[in-house]
Amino acid sequence: MYTEIMQSEHMSDKTRVSYEAYQQAKEVIPGGVTANIKYFDPHPIVMKEAHGSRLIDVDGNKYIDYLLCYGALVLGHGHTAVKEAVNEQINQTGTFIFGSPHNLEYEMARKLVDLFPGIDMVRYTNSGLEATLLSIRLAKAYTGKRKVAKFEGHYHGGYDEMLISVNPDLDEAGEASTPNAVPESSGLGKEDLDNTIILPFNDLEGTRRILTERQDELSAVILEPIQSGFIPADESFMKGLREITEELGILLIFDEVKTGFRLTVGGAQSLYNIEPDITSLGKVLGGGFPVGAVGGKKEVMNIMAPDRGKDILTAGVKDDVKDDIMFHSGTYNGHPVVLAAGLATIQELEKPNVMQNLLEKTNLLRQQLELLYKNYSITMQTVGMGSIFNIIFTDYEIKNYRDLNHANMELRKQLDYELLNQGIYTKPMNRYSMSIAHTDEDIQQTVQAHERAIKLVLGRS
């Protein structure tokens, strides 16, 4: 039987240089990583090169990449169109950034307004986290209410009021229909737990009851239309949530950082035919560069307009200022190189059949993996939507965070570690993201690697 000791030894034998680099990094970087999500036992793998669908680590090991920077690289690594757009932007303008308005800000905003039903106007940030943070502040400023509701199991960035009930221990999480607010990090205050109301995903009646009880306190409901990028909201749930929030005067925020451009170029809201009041974007939008954007209805977005009040950073100015102006700024917002990369990425996805082929290849991989595990009498399903999915070892229907408790996570973990040895890369236990760079050969090799992993981990023949 395959054991954790064996998986650790196998990995260490192949990634010795990675291990040494990691130990060196720990001397000057807390935990040796620049973001906690980059860590996994016994040590993260340090990469040195990437092309298309492939990664190469510092030991020279090659991998088919299904992490793709947590889904950001929908074109794969180093796509020619993105490289050309970035080089052209720099060469034509003679600089990396202006620090002032420029034409690409309008071009990208115009594109997003055309693509996303719920977007009339746009502001840029530098990450998806910043985008959700701005979305929440915008909702609070617009409604004058201080609390926000999120769904259990949904992740919106690593800041205080959203680091709650992302991956809670079910012993602490309370009843499924009335979840408790469970902190996911030290450093959070009681006010964060008090001001963040937790909702049950895909449970419309439970959600309706909580929202109705707290309507006078709540500025907004924020959710991932596809929880964690792979558990879709039911259509009836989404439709009902939009109706409830409109009825109660609560803004609806779609966090489409993961789903924007990965289900269709118009995001989950286009597929569900739902117009949220505010949309948060990131990941794919930057074409591999750090980016975020907030879009929404004009009446909501315009409360940020600086021509209605003063710049708070201009000392000594005593202009008449309206109390309802909401301040938002950022030196690198709308970075021209980033927007050039993002526009090039969207333009590639808009070409005939590109998105369709991406979705077809994703479905092909899912179908072949499900058939493989069925042939070995292993209960498994792929769960997802668009070009993202996850592998879940249970036949229980997965509708929310708590349903994952029915899955065999230990088997998934053991297989993932062996798959790393077999040259299939994603962070263990993470979802699979596809790119247009993945080939039929990649899919075939991936299925073959899964079969080898099954034989080694479970001793099957």
Structural descriptors:
461 residues, alpha/beta, Aspartate Aminotransferase, domain 1, Aspartate Aminotransferase, domain 2, 38% helix, 15% strand, globular
Structural overview:
The protein is of the alpha/beta class. It has two domains: 4-78 and 353-458, Alpha-Beta Complex (Aspartate Aminotransferase, domain 1), CATH 3.90.1150; 80-349, 3-Layer(aba) Sandwich (Aspartate Aminotransferase, domain 2). The protein is 38% helix and 15% strand. The protein has 15 helices and 18 strands. The chain has helices at residues 4-14, 16-25, 68-71, 80-93, 103-115, 128-143, 190-195, 204-214, 235-248, 267-272, 298-301, 336-349, 354-375, 409-421, 440-458, and strands at 47-51, 54-57, 62-65, 121-125, 147-151, 174-175, 178-179, 196-199, 218-223, 226-227, 231-232, 251-255, 278-281, 292-296, 381-385, 388-392, 424-425, 432-433. The strands form five sheets. The chain has a seven-stranded mixed β-sheet, sandwiched between helices. Strands 1-2-3-17 form a four-stranded mixed β-sheet. Strands 15-16-18 form a three-stranded antiparallel β-sheet. A hairpin with a 4-residue loop joins strand 2 (54-57) and strand 3. The longest helix is centred in the last third of the chain and has 22 residues, at 354-375. It is globular, with a radius of gyration of 23 Å. The protein starts with a helix and ends with a helix. The model has no long low-confidence stretch (mean pLDDT 94). Pfam families: Aminotran_3 (PF00202). One of its GO terms (molecular function) is transaminase activity. Its cofactor is pyridoxal 5'-phosphate. This is Aspartate aminotransferase family protein. Keywords: Aminotransferase, Pyridoxal phosphate, Transferase.
